[in-house]
């Protein structure tokens, strides 16, 4: 992951890591097949430069053609998957930001440092609210993720922001009270 984002950074491409990988960074033991990365929308020329740089160590799992990857995947809001050569897992799902939520994740990204490596991640309040919106109440993995992020408590979470996102996503009050009690 860190190697991949260093390539993005070297080309001046803004990015943010979203979804499950964030819970891994905060201590949740889980495996993941894909790491979700959103980037700003870039031109074909910029993507071609990225493609060439990534080609040294990575291969695209969707297509071998840079034009196809850009035009038929990224511009259609579909992720392009990259993995280290001769490996499938883990792979990185790269997508362009497509809506206000993605744009907020990108522009309000949090920089974390792990073993001297930096990484931009989605704001935690947005991550928690989005996962609560996406997952069903009976999803055990969802409960574990919320518990993991909830354990960060007030020292790293802005409760008012979290509540705003929960409201905007339409997460039911009963679910909010059940899984996020003790955060206020």
* CATH topology call of the largest domain: Beta Polymerase, domain 2
Mean pLDDT rating: 82
CATH hierarchy: architecture of the largest domain: 2-Layer Sandwich
Structural class: alpha+beta
Unreliably modeled segments? none
What proportion of the residues is helical, as a percent range?
Answer: 40-55%
| N→C terminal distance | 34 Å
Number of strands: 7
Question: Can you describe what's shown?
Answer:
The chain is α+β, with helices and mostly antiparallel strands. Helices cover 47% and strands 18% of the residues. α3 crosses α4 (66-73), α6 packs antiparallel against α7 (140-150) and α6 packs parallel to α9 (159-169).
Write the layout of secondary structure elements.
Blueprint: H1 2-10, E1 15-18, H2 21-25, E2 34-39, H3 44-54, E3 58-60, H4 66-73, E4 80-84, E5 91-96, H5 100-107, E6 110-114, E7 117-121, H6 124-134, H7 140-150, H8 153-156, H9 159-169, H10 173-180
């Amino acid at each position: 992951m860190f190697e991949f984002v260093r390539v993005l950074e070297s080309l001046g491409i803004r990015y943010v890591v979203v979804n499950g990988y964030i819970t891994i960074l905060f201590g949740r033991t889980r495996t993941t097949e894909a790491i979700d990365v959103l980037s700003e929308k870039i031109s074909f020329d910029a993507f071609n430069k990225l493609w060439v740089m990534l080609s040294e160590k990575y291969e695209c799992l969707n297509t071998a053609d840079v034009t196809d990857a850009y035009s038929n995947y990224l511009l259609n809001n579909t992720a392009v998957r990259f993995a280290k050569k001769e490996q499938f897992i883990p792979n990185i799902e790269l997508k362009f930001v497509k809506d206000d939520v993605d744009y907020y994740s990108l522009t309000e990204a949090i920089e974390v440092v792990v073993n001297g490596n930096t990484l931009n991640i989605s704001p935690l309040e947005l991550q928690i609210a989005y996962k609560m919106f996406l997952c069903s109440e009976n999803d055990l993995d969802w409960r574990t993720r919320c518990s993991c992020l909830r354990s960060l408590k007030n020292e790293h979470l802005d409760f008012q922001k979290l509540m705003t996102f929960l409201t905007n996503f339409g997460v039911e009050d009963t679910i909010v009270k059940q899984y996020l009690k003790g955060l206020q």
